[in-house]
Design brief:
By secondary structure, the chain is an alpha/beta fold. It has a domain of about 180 residues: 3-Layer(aba) Sandwich (Rossmann fold). It is about 45% helix and about 15% strand. The strands form 5 sheets. It has a 4-stranded parallel β-sheet with strand order 3-4-5-10, sandwiched between helices. A two-stranded parallel sheet has the order 1-2. Strands 6-9 form a two-stranded parallel ribbon. Helix 6 links the parallel strand 4 and strand 5. The chain is globular, with a radius of gyration of 20 Å.
């Protein structure tokens, strides 16, 4: 997001929690033009101070405890950050407000995990929510309180109900990156297998770079609203494995993949598939990177990174 906005001429500030945050330097190295400001989604006063310091025109709240599996082990932290953090952000915007002629515009990152045990397929902006994890529940609260503040205080606050969006920068704990990074290491002879959970889970996977454009487009609209952002295609983890191993020119993934029930969720989301018709019609948005291109992009990036690391270790 910061790269996208910088490319459009924005001066971009990023909120970082705590002094000497170990991730701050990594973020700064990847985004040299990004200016870091201290703040914490769990502390309203710090958010108010950050907004008063920066005086932003637009806010993109992508902050959350975002790993679904971890939300089962840390439900209270998830609720405080992913749920109440949205309320605090909205309240800070309401208090600071911007100018009368130029009010602060807000984007809230909602999630397809809100649909959970889906009531219909594909899922649209009107599909009822049935979250299946503390993360999904917290996202429902964040989504609903954004709608409430928009209606109560006439705030320009929009939510993107984003389905899974991936890139080579995805954390190693997420299944897509776990596969592509593990596969790269297998290809280089650095490990023997990949251990996963439920291989039947089906997701609507898109490219993060495409999705940030949709987020920006929402904020540019005259009227705020909620939009599903998705590719409209669903693929299982088995299909992801099939394609990734073909990219690596390795026949058959079955002998390289182990399953372990420890990696399965207490309550699973079986299938997600989004209908982004509203975003196509009103925002003029559509995904550009295909599922096949995404998988290859992630695998080739991990292969290059792991090969470079192995060379340094020699």
């Amino acid at each position: 997001m910061s790269e996208f906005l910088t490319g459009k001429g924005y001066q971009v500030f990023g909120l970082v929690r705590g002094q000497n945050n170990p991730k701050a330097q990594l973020v700064q190295d990847e985004n040299p033009s990004l200016e870091l400001v201290e703040g914490d989604l769990r502390d309203l006063s710090s958010l108010i101070a950050a907004l008063e310091q920066v005086q932003p025109d637009e806010i993109y709240n992508l902050g959350a405890m975002s790993f679904v599996a971890l939300s089962f082990r840390q439900p209270e932290l998830t609720a405080d950050t992913t749920g109440l953090g949205v309320l605090r952000t909205l309240e800070a915007v309401r208090i600071v407000g911007g100018t009368q002629n130029n009010p602060i515009r807000l984007y809230q990152a909602s999630s397809s995990e809100m649909f959970g045990k889906v009531r219909e397929t594909p899922q649209t902006e009107r599909t009822p929510f049935h979250p299946r994890s503390p993360y999904g529940v917290a996202k429902v609260f964040g989504h609903s309180i954004t709608v409430n503040y928009r209606e109560s205080y006439s705030m320009h606050a929009s939510s993107g109900i984003c389905f899974n969006h991936e890139s080579p920068r995805r954390g190693l704990e997420f299944v897509t990156r776990k596969i592509t990074n593990g596969l790269a290491r297998i290809k280089l002879g650095l490990q023997d297998s990949i251990t996963l959970g439920n291989l039947e889970a089906a997701r609507d996977w898109g490219y993060a770079g495409d999705f940030v454009e949709a987020m920006w487009l929402m904020v540019q609209q005259d009227e705020p609203d909620d939009y599903v952002i998705a590719t409209g295609e669903t693929h299982t983890i088995r299909e992801f494995l099939d394609l990734a191993f073909r990219c690596a020119e390795i026949d058959g993934w079955e002998s390289f993949v182990r399953t372990d029930p420890r990696f399965e969720r207490p309550a699973e989301v079986d299938v997600l598939c989004g209908d982004a018709a509203k975003a196509r019609e009103r925002l003029g948005w559509k995904p550009r990177v295909t599922f096949e291109e995404l998988v290859r992009m992630m695998y080739e990036s991990d292969l290059a990174e792991e090969a470079a690391r192995a060379e340094l270790d020699r």
